[in-house]
Structure formats: structure tokens, C-alpha cells
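Need DUF5134 domain-containing protein's 3D structure for a figure. Predict it.
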Amino acid sequence: MGALTPARIIIAAAAVSAMAHTLAAAVSAASAVSDGAMTWGMAAMGVVCMACAVPAAARPRCADKAAGHLMTMSAVMILVHLAMLTLFAQPEAGAGAHHGGAAHTGAAVHVGHASTMFGLMGVEFACLMASSLALRMTHRERSAAANPRTATFAAVEH
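Structure prediction for DUF5134 domain-containing protein:
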């Protein structure tokens, strides 16, 4: 196994996120309360996750741009999942029927899916941390290349 590089960090984080979204799509498809919109949405998010991994794998020198993209997309996905939890949440059948809770249909998040959403938000937070680490590593590499004295101190630190 090679050294830990920014490109490898980005590829691993994006792959984990893609797998988590694909798994969430499979769980949604197997759910009795799924209307299909959530399944397709999660599958699409899984495909979008790979938009960060492919450039980092093809051109490792561009890992800083891929890390910035991953950081932005992770933050957006956290907000999307949070919005889905708060805006489209539905109570279990009968739990809020007197307030019209059982009458809602469409792209709603059922209470049973909340744990999946929280899990995906955790994965997105991990992607944020990984992209932050990759950005820091690429910044150090560029600083060391630009200033020979910094490279000496960086070599002594490690």
C-alpha cells in the first residue's frame, strides 16, 4: 500500500459516500413506505459522489480542486439531507393522523428513514473532514515547493 496522498483521500471519501448513497437507495427500494422518489434521489446522489473521485484518480495533481469540490458537495448534501428531514418529515401512520399526517403523499421522508438520513449526514461530515485534510496536505505541498526553507522545516517535523 502506498503513501497517504490527497488524491487517495478524496477517492476513498467519495467512494464511501457513493456506496452509502447506493445502500440507502437499496434500503429505500426495499421499504414498504417508499414511493420511488427517494430511491431514485439516493441513487442519483451516489452517482454524483463519483464526480469527485474520477478527476482525483485521473489527475492526482488536481487533488486540490477535487478536494474543494468534495467539500462543497458534502456541505450541500448535508443541507439537503437536513432539509429533507425537517421539511418533508412524516409521522408514522396514525401518529399524527388527526393533523393530516397520514394524508401526505409524495417525496416525504418517513420516520423510519430518519436513521438512514442521519447515517448519510455522518458520511457527509466524514467527507468534509477528509476534504479538509486533503486541502491542507496540498497546501503544505505547494508551500514547500514554493519556499525551499519551508520544505526543510516540513521534513524535520515529520
